[in-house]
Amino acid sequence: LISKELRFIVNKIEYKRFVAPHLTLLEVLRNHLGLTGTKEGCDGGECGACTVLLGGIPVLSCLILAEDAANKEITTIEGIGTPHQLHSIQEAFLNEGAVQCGFCTPGMILSARALLDRNPEPTEEDIKEALSGNLCRCTGYTKIIRAVLRSAKILSNA
Ligand code: FES
To answer: Which ligand 1 atom sits closest to the C-alpha of 98?
Structure first.
C-alpha cells in the first residue's frame, strides 16, 4: 500500500506525515506524532480509552481512518492541559479521586470536555449519557460523575 502525505491539525498544531491508507487515527497519533496520551484499550470501539475530539465531537480514534481525520480539527488530551497547568476538568478529577489506574482518564476527560462545551450545566443523567461510551474498571464511576459536576460548577463560576 502506498503512503500518502496527509495534513493533521492536532491541538492547533499542523503536522504533515506520510501515512499508509489503512492506518487509524489512533495509530497516527501515538506512533507517528508521538502523542501517547491517547490510550489504546480494546482497539475495537468498545472501551472509549482512545476517545479524541474531531471538530469538537468525541470519536473513537481506533475506528477512524487517519485519512478521514486529515485537515480537521483534532483535540487530544495533550491539548487540554499540561502537567504544570491542568485544565479545571483534570483538577476536578484529581480532587475527587476519579483517577485510579488512569487508563480511562484521557478519554473520559475529552468526553467530559465535549459535554461541558455544549452543556455547561449538565445533570447527573446528562453526564452518565455523555460518558456511557467510556468504560472504567477501577472507580465505579461515582467519583468520575462527581468530578464532572464539580468542574461544571467551577467553569460556570469562572
Ligand atoms: Fe482505571 Fe478508570 S481509573 S480504568
So the answer is: 3
Q: How far is the CA of 100 from the centre of ligand 1 (A)?
A: 5
Q: For residue 79, report the distance from its CA to the centre of ligand 1, in Å.
A: 21
Residue 52: in which H helix or E strand, if any?
A: strand 51-54
| pTM tops 0.85, yes or no | yes
Ligand 1 atom at minimal distance to the Cα of residue 137: 4
Q: Give 75-110 pLDDT, tens digit per residue.
A: 999 999 998 999 999 999 999 999 999 999 999 999
Rounded Cα gap, residues 91 and 73, in angstroms: 25
- For 96, half-sphere exposure in the C-beta direction (CA atoms, 13 angstrom radius) is 21
